[in-house]
Write a structure and sequence with these properties.
By secondary structure, the protein is of the alpha/beta class. Helix content is 38%, strand content 14%.
Length: 280
């Protein structure tokens, strides 16, 4: 059992180094700020260089030079390997991998079809979503997880799944008034497939490197309020026992728990933080 001398030592990430994919996104910033706020060093990865630089600038203004931003394509293992080398060159170790990279595209309707619907969903969109969201997590587990497994220190992997990784999307919340059924927008099939797949990947990794001191868990958040239209918010919040969507910073506690020694006996689990939605 780990020995801790202070009340909050369990949550300390002092001097640890965390990789955060999707580091240019809204939740990528929140995850990184959580880790840096607990004393950790953060390496942000994203293919969107502008968004990456924006988040890195915000974080450096708060936490100084403990932030490294790397333009990385997680669908290309060579790009991930290059980022591993750069991260080690700067910090000399990797302790945490947080797989947060995701796609959640918005589909524009034409007069005659809706491309989000399964019958019309483009094959190229299927492959792109799977490659980024699931393939990217695989590549990062392979490269960063492999490094942690063979470093002798072990480490922690956290895969960001979703409440829609444990329940099906309720397509009624996306309905638009005065539109025929075959033109109604829906949550695309790839979102469910990817998020369920990340939970499966979590269980695989948790048992694969258990003898190498690498723990792997998933976090399944619910919907985050970002100014969505009132009809959608009303439809969704009726499905949530707490009666509201999450605010962007409300997953910080869960991330702190999963990345730190506070969860030292947790492995292969999926932590659902959805306001109770999946309980109904």
């Amino acid at each position: 059992m780990s020995q801790h001398t202070g009340k909050f030592d369990l949550f300390s990430l002092e001097d640890r180094v965390a990789i955060v994919t999707g580091g240019g996104g809204m939740l990528g910033y929140q995850h990184a700020a959580t880790i840096a706020g607990l004393g950790g060093n953060v390496v942000l990865l994203d293919i969107d260089e502008k968004a990456l630089d924006t988040n890195a600038g915000r974080l450096r203004s708060e936490f100084g030079d403990r932030i490294l931003a790397l333009n990385t394509d997680v669908t290309r293992v060579e790009s991930v390997q290059e980022s591993l080398g750069q991260a080690l060159g700067r910090f000399n170790r990797i302790d945490i991998l947080l797989n947060n990279a995701a796609r959640n595209p918005k589909f524009e309707d034409s007069a005659s079809t809706n491309f989000s619907r399964l019958e019309n969903f483009p094959a190229e969109q299927w492959h792109l979503d799977i490659d980024v969201c699931l393939g990217g997590a695989f590549n990062c587990c392979k490269v960063f997880g492999g490094h942690m497994a063979h470093s002798g220190r072990g480490g922690v992997i956290v895969n960001i799944a979703s409440d829609l990784g444990v329940i099906a999307p309720d397509q009624r919340i996306y309905r638009v008034a005065d539109r025929p059924d075959h033109l109604q927008p829906v949550k695309p099939v790839t979102y469910s497939v990817v998020k369920h797949g990340l939970i499966g990947l979590t269980k695989y990794i948790a048992t694969y490197w258990c003898d190498r001191k690498v723990r792997c868990n998933a976090l399944s958040p619910g919907g985050v309020y970002t100014g969505q239209n009132d009809v959608f918010v009303s439809n969704l919040t009726r499905l949530i026992p707490l009666g509201r969507m999450a605010m962007p910073d409300e997953y910080r506690g869960a991330v702190a728990f999963l990345c730190s020694d506070a969860s030292s006996y947790m492995n292969g689990a999926n932590l659902i933080v959805d306001g109770g939605r999946s309980a109904w």
